[in-house]
Write a structure and sequence with these properties.
Length: 393
């Protein structure tokens, strides 16, 4: 009998279990809503990126169904062969208009947008100056580019400046940050980083995935929030979070987008979005422009929930966004917090190493526009009960 060459993976899984790093997948039984069902249990959902509730918005449903009836369920090809449909071009045009840039290219995911862009615009002769807490897709894109990688401590602009000053002046440099950091919910120091990029001749890039639909006028992101239009060379956004559908995009000048059409490997070698997805994203942009009150509701709920957690005495870090970590410390305690909350009817998933530092394990909560005050009060009551049990408060 043949020996299983993958048997070692079983040992790796056992090691994860011993370190309290093993988690099984929770199964969503219905729609991605603020109050829904996971594993057949009714819960207040605090783990979704569905910031504005657009995954189930009637305007997105209607537009997606109409696109299926008109165009079918798939595109049938990559964009560069036979898979560029008129609806893809309409989405890119609408996004460019929304972001106040010359052009946009849509990718199949936010991860592909980051990794594909960094690896396309840089080569082994270049260098990346990257925040230590930047998203994994940025890190992978840097590695794929084969450029040198210089990491500065989180949000430490002076440290980034010191790194750049030690580099050859004629070397191509990419300075990159998240707009909103996905695990801590704090904002990147865009004004200072943009000034540094201009001072030192760096390409300035911002991953605005968790800011899209959340920050800025009508949800245009942190570039708009900080008034940095025209000062960020490459903007990455997502269509999978507040927009409610699927995908990512890169916004910038026409040369950048044309180049990515020709050299970004995820764009070149992945089938394009189904027409229903593109149609839903266009409908989401209509909602952002015509129903901005849902963003106001998101922030009302965010302020209410944050104040409740802080009043109870939880460690919520430095969050400035609807992402609010409840830091437990070690992974065992974070897992226990998540599991007990689930038993109490609140779904707040545990996050542990390697996603965050070993001593910074947490449950990450995300409030949405569609949470009711009853939902949030219920969740806070559960946090109070379980927090006291686990001696977190």
């Amino acid at each position: 009998m043949r020996t299983d060459p993958l048997a070692y993976l079983g040992h790796e899984l056992d090691a994860l279990k011993e370190q309290n790093l093993y988690r099984r997948l929770r199964i969503l039984d219905g729609e991605q809503k603020a109050h829904t069902s996971f594993d057949h249990r009714s819960v207040v959902n605090l783990s979704s990126n569905n910031y504005l509730g657009l995954t189930t918005h009637p305007r997105l449903r209607e537009r997606a169904l109409k696109a299926i009836e008109e165009f079918g369920v798939g595109s049938g090809s990559v964009r560069t062969i036979a898979g560029t449909m008129a609806i893809h071009m309409e989405l890119e045009r609408r996004l460019a208009e929304f972001k106040h840039v010359e052009a946009v290219v849509v990718f199949q995911s936010g991860f592909a947008a980051n990794a594909g862009t960094v690896s396309a615009v840089l080569n082994k002769e270049d260098v990346v100056i990257s925040d230590s807490l930047n998203h994994a897709s940025i890190i992978d894109g840097c590695r794929l580019s084969r450029a040198a990688i210089k990491v500065f401590p989180h949000k430490d602009v002076d440290a980034a400046r010191a790194i750049i000053k030690d580099l050859p002046t004629d070397q191509r440099k990419l300075l990159i940050t998240d707009g909103v950091f996905s695990m801590d919910g704090d904002l990147g120091p865009l004004p200072d980083l943009c000034a540094l990029a201009e001072e030192t001749g760096c390409i300035m890039m911002v991953d605005d995935a968790h800011a899209s639909g959340v920050f800025g006028k009508n949800g245009r992101g942190t570039v708009d929030h900080f008034g940095m239009h025209g000062r960020v060379d490459i903007q990455v956004g997502t269509l999978s979070k507040a927009i409610g559908a699927l995908g990512g995009y890169v916004a910038g000048n026409k040369n950048l987008i044309e180049f990515l059409y020709h050299r970004a490997r995820p764009f070149l070698f992945s089938t394009s979005h189904p027409p229903a997805v593109a149609a839903a994203c266009i409908a989401a942009l209509d909602v952002l422009m015509e129903e901005p009150q849902i963003i106001d509701q998101l922030w009302d709920n965010t302020r209410f929930f944050k104040a409740g957690l802080e009043r109870l005495g939880f460690d919520t870090g430095l969050s400035e966004s609807p992402i609010t970590p409840v830091i437990a410390g070690d992974s065992a305690k974070a897992n226990a917090l998540s599991d007990r909350l689930f038993q109490e009817g609140v779904f707040a998933q545990a996050i542990a190493f390697p996603t965050v530092a070993r001593d910074k394990a947490r449950v990450r909560t995300i409030v949405t526009a569609t949470h009711s005050r009853e939902d949030l009060r219920y969740a806070l009551d559960a946090f109070e009960k379980v927090g006291k049990e686990l001696e977190l408060v």
